[in-house]
């Protein structure tokens, strides 16, 4: 990523730092979202003012990260980290309509010129790609098929485990729904049902549009999956290893944010820390 | 993305398709093989099969992951490979054949779920596959029958083992089989992954499950 379909063919696009700065100006970007992932994969961001963003920062990185507050990164006594943006990951975040914002995925470095933070999962992916080359291959190609649920509401009561714990799931599609306005889908009967049983077609159309148009992650197909209560799959184009990791993280980012825009919630794992 | 939020229904997976390329050619494709899979592809598959238990700790890194990896819901549980068998963990999709479609030749690793960190999953699968190529690990015979229907004795005879049934078990497997990761993952990173996941596992083991009240309240 990013890719663009040019004359019916998926073509990879690259951006130089200069091109990113001219896009920021031309597209009247006000804020830059610097994104990265924790060791176990939670997506994080910090936002900088676009006016203050300089070519030097693009090249050397920004001293903007306290690694001790990111799960799996660093201890509190050695926590100054650098975020170095990858110009190729530039994309305007389309659902932020006021104060236009673009994102850049970052590589994480130790402060003080001590090189790459090995606990940055993107650095592990990059190391995997160079190890593959050392083994005599040119590259690997990855196609993840990510499935997820979109619920209307999820409630949980887990903060007083001594008293008791519970969760409950609400979905207009579910056979247990008491709304009285849905077309209930039985357990394991969710594969490819047509509308109106499948209530999430507009949601998935919107996700695919944004992935294609704004993030350059090409999707050729989306559908309801086997489970009831809003299980979905969107197929994204296969890609090189680190790119496929970026694309998967971006896919989850888009799905969660668009679900929220539709007044729903996409299943995210809440790590217990 | 939580893999198994709904009891008694299918969970969410992140089937991971992979191929290796050299000189603009798919190294997994070999027209002369019955299944059009090259020897490199077979060894790569052998690496995944061989390290599947340890890989689970990275491809299925939450306690919830193991609610998905049970028989009966299209999720894989047995460590085997096959062209089209959805009960096996590695599959070779074959919608199309021939040189024209050689670019589509790939292995589909069906264990991963979307609670995993994609950067780590792809890197760990690559490490396992490259270890297979390096050590010429054969994946064994393909299994065409529905493994769910085999008896334990039959599975044993065919050398089919099962994936870990809990996060704790997967972490034990990773602790005893982690060397294959070392060209890509530092020891510190593996230690940290194990430490963080053990923490979640402990959080869950501390708490009684609501269904235990149904089973055991009057025990």
Word description of this protein:
- The complex is a heterodimer of chains A (273) and B (219).
- Chain A has helices at 17-26, 55-60, 121-134, 201-213, 241-261, and strands at residues 3-6, 9-12, 31-37, 43-49, 62-66, 80-85, 91-92, 101-110, 139-151, 153-157, 166-170, 219-224, 231-236, 265-266.
- Chain A is an alpha+beta fold.
- The longest helix of chain A is centred in the last third of the chain and has 21 residues, at 241-261.
- Chain A is globular, with a radius of gyration of 21 Å.
- Chain B has one domain (16-216): Glutamine synthetase/guanido kinase, catalytic domain (Creatine Kinase, Chain A, domain 2).
- In chain B, 39% of the residues lie in helices and 11% in strands.
- Chain B has a 6-stranded mixed beta sheet with strand order 2-1-5-4-3-6, covered by helices on one side.
- Strand 9 (139-151) of chain A pairs antiparallel with strand 1 (14-22) of chain B.
Predict the CATH topology of chain B: Creatine Kinase, Chain A, domain 2
Largest sheet of chain B: 6 strands, mixed
Radius of gyration of chain B: 18 Å
CATH superfamily of chain B: Glutamine synthetase/guanido kinase, catalytic domain
What would the principal axes of the Cα set say about the shape of chain B?
globular
What portion of the residues of chain A fall into strands of 2 or more residues?
A: 25-35%
Question: Helix/strand/pairing class of chain A, anyone?
Answer: alpha+beta
By secondary-structure content and strand pairing, the structural class of chain B works out as alpha+beta
Radius of gyration of chain A: 21 Å
Looking at CATH, the homologous superfamily of the largest domain in chain A is Glutamine synthetase, N-terminal domain
């Amino acid at each position: 990523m990013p890719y663009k379909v040019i004359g019916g063919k998926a073509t990879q696009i690259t951006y130089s730092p200069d091109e990113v700065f001219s896009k920021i100006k031309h597209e009247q970007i006000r804020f830059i979202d610097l994104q990265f992932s924790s060791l176990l994969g939670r997506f994080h961001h910090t936002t900088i003012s676009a006016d203050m963003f300089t070519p030097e920062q693009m090249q050397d990185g920004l001293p903007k990260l306290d690694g001790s507050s990111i799960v799996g990164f660093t201890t509190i006594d050695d926590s100054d980290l650098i975020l170095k943006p990858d110009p190729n990951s530039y994309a305007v975040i389309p659902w932020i309509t006021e104060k236009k914002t673009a994102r850049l995925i970052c590589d994480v470095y130790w402060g003080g010129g001590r090189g790459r933070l090995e606990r940055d999962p993107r650095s592990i992916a990059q190391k995997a790609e160079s190890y593959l080359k050392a083994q005599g291959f040119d590259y690997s190609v990855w196609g993840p098929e990510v499935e997820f649920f979109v619920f209307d509401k999820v409630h949980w009561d887990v903060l007083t485990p001594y008293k008791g714990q519970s969760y409950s799931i609400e979905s207009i599609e579910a056979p247990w729904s008491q709304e009285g306005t849905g077309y209930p889908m039985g357990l394991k009967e969710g594969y490819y049902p047509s509308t109106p049983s499948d209530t999430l077609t507009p949601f998935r159309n919107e996700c695919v549009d944004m992935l294609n148009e704004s993030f350059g992650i090409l999707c050729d197909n989306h559908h309801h999956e086997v489970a009831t209560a809003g299980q979905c799959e969107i197929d994204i184009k296969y890609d090189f290893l680190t790119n496929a990791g970026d694309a998967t993280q971006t896919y989850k980012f888009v799905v969660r944010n668009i679900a929220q825009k539709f007044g729903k919630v996409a299943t995210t794992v809440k790590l217990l820390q | 993305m939580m893999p198994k939020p709904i009891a008694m229904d299918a969970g969410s997976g992140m089937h991971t398709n992979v191929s290796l390329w050299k000189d603009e050619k798919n190294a997994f494709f070999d027209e002369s093989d019955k299944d059009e899979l090259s020897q490199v592809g077979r060894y790569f598959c052998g690496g995944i099969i061989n390290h599947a238990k340890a890989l689970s700790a990275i491809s299925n890194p939450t306690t919830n992951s193991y609610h998905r990896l049970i028989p009966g819901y299209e999720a894989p549980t047995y460590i085997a490979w096959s062209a089209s068998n959805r009960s096996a963990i590695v599959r070779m999709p074959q919608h199309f054949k021939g040189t024209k479609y050689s670019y589509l030749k790939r292995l589909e690793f069906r264990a991963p779920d979307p609670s995993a960190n994609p950067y780590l999953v792809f890197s760990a699968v690559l490490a396992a596959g490259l270890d297979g190529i390096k050590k010429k690990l054969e994946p064994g015979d393909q299994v065409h029958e529905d493994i769910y229907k085999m008896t334990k004795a039959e599975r044993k005879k065919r050398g089919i083992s099962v994936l870990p049934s809990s996060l704790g078990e997967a972490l034990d497997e990773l602790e005893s089989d982690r060397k294959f990761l070392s060209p890509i993952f530092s020891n510190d990173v593996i230690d940290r992954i194990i430490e963080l996941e053990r923490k979640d596992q402990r959080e869950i083991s501390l708490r009684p499950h609501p269904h235990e009240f149904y089973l055991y309240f009057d025990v």
